[in-house]
Amino acid sequence: MQLSRSQSVILRGPLIIICLLFLALICMPQEYVCVKGCSKSFAKSSSLVKHKNSCPHLLEIRQKSRQIHREKGDDAFPNVTSLSERKQRLMASFQVMDHQDPSTTLATVSTEPTAMDVDPPMPLSPTQAFVSAEPEPIPEPPPPPALTASGRPRREYRIPTRFRDILPEPLAPAVLAEEPQLEVGPVRRVLLIVRDRLITAANTFGIWRDYPRRPTVDPDSSLSLDELSNSHQVTLDPLSPTDPPSNLSPSDSEHPSDSEHPFYWPFPNVTIWRIMSWLNNGKTAKSEAEVTAFVEKVILSPDFNKDDLIGFNAHRENQRLDKALSKAALKSQFSESPVDILVPSGDAAVPAKTFTIPGLLHRSLTSVIHDAFNDPLSHLLHFSPFKLFRRNAKTRKDERIHGELYTSDAFLAEHEKIQRYGKLPPDDLACKREKVVAALMFSSDATHLTDFGNAKAWPIYLMLGNLSKYIRARPNSGAMHHLAYIPSLPDSFQDFASAFHCKWRTQKQEILTHCRRELMHAVWKTILDDEFIQAYHYGIVIKCIDGIERRIYPRFFTYSADYPEKVLLATIRDKGLCPCPRCLVFKSKLDRLGMRRDISIRVKVREFMADQVAIARRAIYTLAKSIRSKPVEDLLKSFSGVPTVNAFVDRLGPNFNPSHILVVDLLHEFELGVWKALFTHLIRLLHAAGRGSDDLVVQLDRRYRDISTFGHGTIRKFAANSSEMKKLAARDFEDLLQCAIPTFEGLLEEPHNKRLMKLLYRTAEWHALAKLRMHSDATLDLLDELTTEFGKLIRQFRDLTCSEFETVELPRETAARNRRQTAQQATTSPAIPRSTPSTAPFCNDAPTEVASTSPTVTSPPQAVPPPTMPSTSPIITSPAQAVPTPAITSTGPPVSSTTATTASTTTATTASSTTATTASSMTATTASTTTATTASTSRSEGQPSTAPPGSGTNRKSKHFNLFIVKLHFLGDYVRHIRLFGTTDSYSTQLGELAHRLVKRLYGLTNKKDAIKQISKKYTRQRVFRQAEKQEEKEADQPERLSEHHVISHSRNSPLNVLAFVQDGDPAKKDFFPKLQEHLLGRILGRDFDGDTHESFTHEDRNSIRLRNNTIFRHMTARINYTTYDIRRDYDTVNPRTHPFIMVSSPEVESNPNAHPFWYGAVIGVFHADVQHTGSKSRSFGWKPMDFLWVRWLGVVPGHSFGQKQAKLPKLGFIPETDDYAFGFLDPSLVIRGCHLLPAFVDGRTSELLETRAPTEARLNGQIDDWANYYVGIFVDRDMYMRFLGMGIGHRENTAACSRGSDSMDCEPDLATSEDQHGIEGEDDEDMQVQVVEDSDLDSDSDSDNDEEEEEEGDGGDGDSDEDDEDDLGFDDL
Q: Which regions of the chain are under pLDDT 70?
């Protein structure tokens, strides 16, 4: 029936209305609401998930549900279907474990009769428990070979393996224990150890958890993919009106009527509250983004009222806030306290006097802990530690995984100790609350607040190890709590001491050093107050964010600091006879890394000798002995002790050993220590190898400049002159190491070049393993082996290579030495003698410092109030009193007296009985380096050598010094990773990043009493902090993380494909036919075979059509991938800057030792609208398809590489004569971007692409290519683990550089036994060794701001206390 025009018009109206309503429903934004009773709604599901972790309404519903289950039992709910199918599968393992017969199950141990019973045997892993017993099916016969269009068998090409992108996922959920009941019962008479062990199911990556005790909270089970991403950035944002700052509410006891204040209290209205919250967000630069945020969140807010701003004054409102904070329930505010130290008089008749140092700003440690368990991040705290396991794919054995502190042996041991022996307060002996360990992690470091001037701060930071390190590592997460700011000795102290101490002029340096040390420990005694000591012994009851009260026991786990600060905390001498703060190794044996004797000596753990320290303090404070007098030295020098009472031992008890918490520091010990020293000496070697010419150094700088950047700040652009090392931070030295192999290759002659290449490979490999964020037992064993090998290689390099060159100071070292010399001469110059003050004390005839006349102190002293000291102290030398005499050198002729007074080295024989005589004969020198030489050394040490022509100055001889404590520290890394987790969890880099906030707040002060203003501004910022709300930028936190790749579908850069290929570029040869074959193969579902579809006819290719013959070009493509530590990360592929990619190779299926990756350089990123026509087409619609235009690279034939051979893989471009030198690639096959380093020794060539005309295959202006490239396998930890084949998140990778896959090493070990060359043999007690304290190997400065490297020297005996402020770690990333 045909409708009339009027009828069609009538029906058309309702249809249009229905369509509009349908479109409105589709376009309506989706809203995610919480449970009934909660009024909050969210635009994203991830925001709703985060909210549910702390929603009080949902927590109340869950609690009621648990109560109903407990009352009615599980049988009352037979058909529960609320859980998802996936969660039911995960819970099945727990149900099997929990309901098995106790006599037969091995998966769960519920109780143990006594505390003396050993742990039950290791249960079967989840991977063992669910192995299918079905027989394997019989494989079918292979299909007949495919034929081409001409009837011939088709060629078999090796195709890239399809990359399986497995998304990170949280660990399998744990069945939580019921909350303990709090009814008061009788006091326990019998100790019954009950364990409720729990083993979770394995997740997709084969990882499961082993809880010694069933947890009550499982924060990992609710993590989203966004929170498992490395690009996830949490930024602090002001609170919204619906979430008022609860810590501003006044205490009910003081203001009972103020409990119902509006949310904007203490401000008069919401408009001012919004403005003040924006003002105190901690950001100093008001950029365009800040102004935009101000307009959107303040001015455009619905409750903004301009009339409320009449009479507004920001200073007055800040004062209003400060006044409210002083009366609020927020206890963890900064308070100012004086610090008292005891100063000796130097006269037995004059008692010691107390000097008060003002300005210690600190917060209550217990209050900070209380706040940490209730801040917005507290729902992610782990209350119960566990072990992580996985099944090793190669050994088929279960192995331990190490990463977080709450999965470490130290946390597990302390948790078990607290559960068994945790004390309860006498007034609450029947407490049944859950016992939880608060893992305290401290970090402190002095920092300069400005680039110019002397403004500095010395903050102490506190972190909770119960929180994941991935959250603590984010500078803006709020997980780094500011605990205190250590003051310095005021200028008035020297006036006081010079008037009080009768021997101030001759003992000034040692008095200042001693008092600074006393100040440091006095500060810590103030922090460790009585309230904390009570909590330390009996715990502190805290109502956590979930509304449940728990008893928290704070425990010290780690203290991150650089070496000078470790010396202060351990109360030992800086570079004394036993310079290690953790063991008692002698300085003369610091170079024996990895040797058997070195491993055994680490067992001797350093302890605080309280009795000897007490006797020494009595000699100083009562008998008026000097701090370096012989009686004091006889007591303390043998173990490098100092006469300072350790605050941690004094407050926490004699069983607490501060040496145990001083963890390794990769940033200062390796990157700014061992590697910086090695790199510096390599520059000296190049100067020496050039025989007076700087050509080799210039060539090295040019090579570093030619290396491309990589990643998002992973490899930065190198400076114009990398060899000068100007203003380089630790990250810059890391980049120098990761790119060092091709840059140094061929600069030295053989065999030194081969030896250096192997040393650089092992150095980079050790650094990569030590910096891993997730370790397994296998990788730790490998790191242990590498530590031994690295120690042997670096000793070989010193003895076999460095000894062949006459190396001298670098020009910047000479200039720095001259500046220090001038400053020291100005300080010690007797031209203007200082008159004795009229108030100077008169010293009685006290016993002299000579050993024969000084009485021996044998009885313990009376308790003396122990003082404490900071770690910053400028070098202050006393005027020289000795008669100018020829300086004594160990191997050279005497130097004239003029030279002796200006020499920068002091030579001594430390292992000799004439140490004191040698030291006294050299008091006329202003030495800053101590050199003890071996009897076999024939070369002159410390004498000026001829400088290169034209320099006009003499340079001091420099040798490669391995007698440094930082090299010795490398042997502790494996033990500390097993004990405390991976090094990134307690790296000093976390403290360096926290300095950024201190410096930003300093910029907001008026520079008067700046530290006090910083503490106030920090407190204000905490008030407005909300970590749950995030501001995300697409560049910083890319969306679509679940997708493998992201390519824009913008149509701003269209290209007509027929016109695009007409310019004669050899890279565009057969561009369109290859593109058709590539797209057709993907549409038909064929595996990628290099686009060699020989079965495709001309008609088949013509069935592929591009809309308007147009392709659209894009600048970048983002490749998302899962890292080795099961995190989500991404690489940005840019054909102009970061073109190189890697795909999986299929060759490993038939040859396990084959290289597992293929490589290509992306020269174009495109998408097009594609239509498939013809008889094989399934759809005639237009489909957008992404594709990459690639220039392929291949492995260089005949080049052997691998971990055992210590060589990088070498690649080269496929010659243009090959039909498949250029092709197309599906972006889904890309694993990630890679970093290729030019093989500089092979030079550049135009034979691979002979054209010199502009081409798409080269960057603008280039006319040739590098002949070969090295694969930068050390560019980041994920890349290294892909080649190693041990990445837990790389499930199907095969190792390319496995130790077992190489047939032989390129360079046999030069010293096969420990007795060759006199370096690998066991220690001969009478053997003298060379000890050189060079500044370049022990520098702790993060950047050379003034190009000065302070010489870290000792006195004649080698036991010194560093007094220079620059050596105390003013490290600023």
A: 1-15, 19-32, 36, 43-46, 49-50, 53-54, 59, 63, 65-165, 175-195, 232-261, 263, 282, 284-286, 325-332, 827-953, 1024-1039, 1088-1094, 1292-1373
How far lies 133's CA from each of 129, 468, 664, in Å? 11, 39, 48
Give the predicted TM-score (pTM) of the model. Answer: 0.76
1080 within 8 A of 1096, measured Cβ to Cβ: yes
Rounded CA separation 179/784 (Å): 43
Dihedral Cα 299, 300, 301, 303, nearest 10 deg: 70
* 989, 462 contact by CB (below 8 A): no
Q: Assign residue 457 a region: left if phi > 0, alpha if psi is -120 to 50, beta otherwise?
A: beta
The gap between the terminal CA atoms of the chain, to the nearest Å, is: 82
HEC per residue, 515-537: HHHHHHHHHHHHHCCHHHHHHHH
Give the tokens for residue 231. 């690009």
Query: DSSP secondary-structure letter at 131?
Result: -
* Residue 375 φ then ψ, to 5°: -85, 175
pLDDT tens, position by position, 535-572? 999 999 999 988 899 999 999 999 999 999 999 999 99
CA atoms within 13 A on the CB side of 842: 2
**DSSP H helical segments within 28-77, as ranges?**
45-52, 56-72
The Cα 413–Cα 394 span in angstroms is: 30
Report the C-alpha gap between 736 and 1000 in whole angstroms.
29
CA–CA dist 1025, 481 (Å, integer): 13
Phi/psi-derived region of residue 318, left when phi > 0, alpha when psi is between -120 and 50, beta in every other case: alpha
Residue 538 DSSP symbol: H
What angle, 0 to 180 degrees and rounded to 10, lies between the N-to-C axes of helices 1010-1023 and 989-1003? 100
Return d(Cα 621, Cα 861) in angstroms, integer: 10
Closest by CA position to 504, among listed 27, 834, 123:
834
Contact criterion met (CB below 8 Å) for 461 and 480:
yes
Distance between alpha carbon 1000 and the CA centroid of its chain, in Å?
A: 22
How many CB atoms within 10 Å of residue 970? 24
Helix (H, G, I), strand (E, B) or coil at 1138: strand
**Over the stretch 124-146, which tens digit does the pLDDT of each residue have?**
444 444 333 344 444 444 455 44
* Structural contact between residues 1110 and 1168, judged by C-beta atoms closer than 8 angstroms: yes
pLDDT at 669: 95
**Could you give the CA distance from residue 413 to residue 408 in angstroms, rounded to a whole number?**
9
Token pair for residue 1148? 């490993």
Which positions ≥6 away from 1335 have C-beta within 8 Å? Answer: 813, 928, 929, 1349, 1350, 1351, 1352
Q: In this predicted structure, what is the pLDDT of residue 319?
A: 79
Q: What is the pLDDT of residue 1094?
A: 65
Q: Are 1155 and 1273 in contact (CB under 8 A)?
A: no
Task: Determine the pLDDT at residue 1292.
Answer: 58
Q: Helix, strand, coil proportions of the chain in percent (round to 5)? A: 35, 15, 50
Q: How far is CA 114 from the centre of its chain?
A: 42
What's the CA gap between 1156 and 158, in Å, rounded?
12
The closest alpha carbon to 1262, from 1131, 1097, 1117, 1139, belongs to 1139
Q: Are 343 and 496 in contact (CB under 8 A)?
A: yes
Question: What gap in Å lies between CA 579 and CA 567, rounded to an integer?
Answer: 8
434-444 and 459-464 strand pairing: antiparallel
The whole-number pLDDT of residue 23 equals 63
DSSP string across 156-177: ----PPPP--PPP-PPPPP-PP
Kindly tell me the burial class for residue 772, based on how many C-beta atoms sit within 10 Å of its own C-beta (0-12, 13-18, 19 or more).
Answer: buried
